[in-house]
Amino acid sequence: MKKLFSAISLILLTFAASAQGMLTDKNSPVTKSVEMETEFVVVGGGLSGVCAAVSAARHGAKVVLVQDRPVLGGNASSEMRMGICGAKGDQNYEAGILEEMQLKNFYFNPLQRYTLWDDAIYWTVIQEKNITLLLNTSVYDVVMDGENIAAVKAWNSNAYTYYTIKGRLFADCTGDGILRLSGAEFRRGRENPEEFGETFLQTGGDSYTMGNSILIQLRKTKEDHPFVAPDWAYHFSDYDFNFDKPKSTIPGVKFNYKKAMPKDNNFWWVEFGGMLDTIFDANDIQFELKRIIYGVWEYMKNNPDGRCKNYELDWIGSLPGKRESTRFIGPHILTQNDVMTGGHFEDVVAYGGWTLDDHDPEAFHKRGRASTEYTAPSPFGIPYDCLYSINVPNLMFAGRDISATHMGFSSTRVMATCALLGQAVGTAASIVISENTTPAGVRKDYIARLQDMLEDDDCMLPYRWRNVSEMTLSAKTDPANEPVRNGIDRIWDGEDNGVWLAPGDQTLSYTWKKPVKVNSMRLVFDSEFIYRGKRMRKLEGTTERVEMPKMLVKGFRVEAKVGKKGEWKTVWEDDENILRLRKIEFDEPLEADAIRVVVTSTWGAEKGHIFAFDVR
Fold first, then answer.
1. How far apart are CA 321 and CA 177, in angstroms?
2. Which of 66, 349, 436, 485 can bridge 384 by disulfide, Cβ–Cβ 3.0-4.6 Å?
3. Inter-CA distances, 159 with 38, 154, 162, 338, Å
4. What is the distance between the alpha carbons of residues 413 and 75, in angstroms, rounded to a whole number?
């Protein structure tokens, strides 16, 4: 029926256009101007911006998401194809909206094609009725009302449309920080080590940053052919790659170098621009990276040692992936020392766990160490006070432009961490809107609520666990079921924290002495965090299909004892579940004195694994 209505709408629009008659310079404008008004404006559609927009929308805020590219995903998209990295350690895997998108990708994109991954992200956004998405739209100015941002101005180059987007609250998730046009305080470059007592940075007080990278993807083939680089590309020799590469002798410190080999290589070290301006010099950096990457592949492919025999160049990026440019200033600036001591903040709203991974600004053209990694605690907490402006009251930020030093940023910049930061900002934004407050007001009055909401949405926060509802705790259940109501929704420190149910013959039940009114339920299924294959492949064109996590529950139903007869009645069922977190809302409260979950199928395992079953 929906397809029929869509077809009818298209026909009506076609007739309406033809009814106008021919368009000419006399009756048709070349550009169009549109004014919009919303509650929350998110600028930047990478993983942080997507998660900010989706989380805010799901909690009731009206959102406009502005993205300057034709696809969502930023560095993770098909345009750049950077790997999604995050906290080290399998039990620290990032859940929330990021895990939801990756599971959707597994289900709808088993061959792991990057353009279909783009649409898994796109689908997550467009299914939210509270989001208006503007692709191909670049913000170029802001309108101020005193200290606050009143609106952003943007240009859509595809639709020849100017937008003025008014809002109550704004989030910069661009990485480059375009909303600095508001006068928000920021810094770019490397601090002097003594400013924050950061010992890992040997020099600083300059504008140098980490550089950008253009990536390539290879394909294995049966035939083998030489490669000729364009004449404008570099032509490298063994001199450019064969030099002393000493390993670190310091525990917890790792040195990284260029790796001109095809196996398990994402070519991150094809990097340039750290000694230039990664914003204003973007075009020059892009061309230089093109010259480098073609030369790198020519050297590898035609190497007499045959290292790339039966490999072909399948894809080369045009848009560089950016590591670093601008960082806003918030009430707290995250430092190396915050990271290394674990980030024990009372206002923790996200976590990291990647190394302090500092890339040399000379990058590819340096004959020597490309980056140095300092092992950090995993996870370490990231505070809310790093996510909103110190001087523009209605400006928040998530992703690569949060309030951090260069060294602190070197660990938080990876995309899985950025996704968690985005979800935290979007959830906080919904509180700002619903309570008519400010980001600082959330910190003062609602930080506990924000933390509870994030944990309820499957975002782990370090050094604490989720609060379980009183209704869930008041129920009687088999002692074997106790782990599902301990608030720990993952395997942790060797503890299972879940129950295993075989399809059909085992149930997870709660009973009460008197009937209770159930408005909603929350289930967390095991999506196998250890299965890191949910992140996209480095080789293109692979024909091997990925599988859904086997112990993930595929089919399940919820039954309740209702009515005077106390008979079990199915109140919810799904035979094609693909998600880890399921929230079920009832149109009317369900009165029952017992409720249970029945697993009907898994994605391949003999039993399904459930971490949480909450009723409210």
1. 16
2. 349
3. 21, 12, 9, 45
4. 11
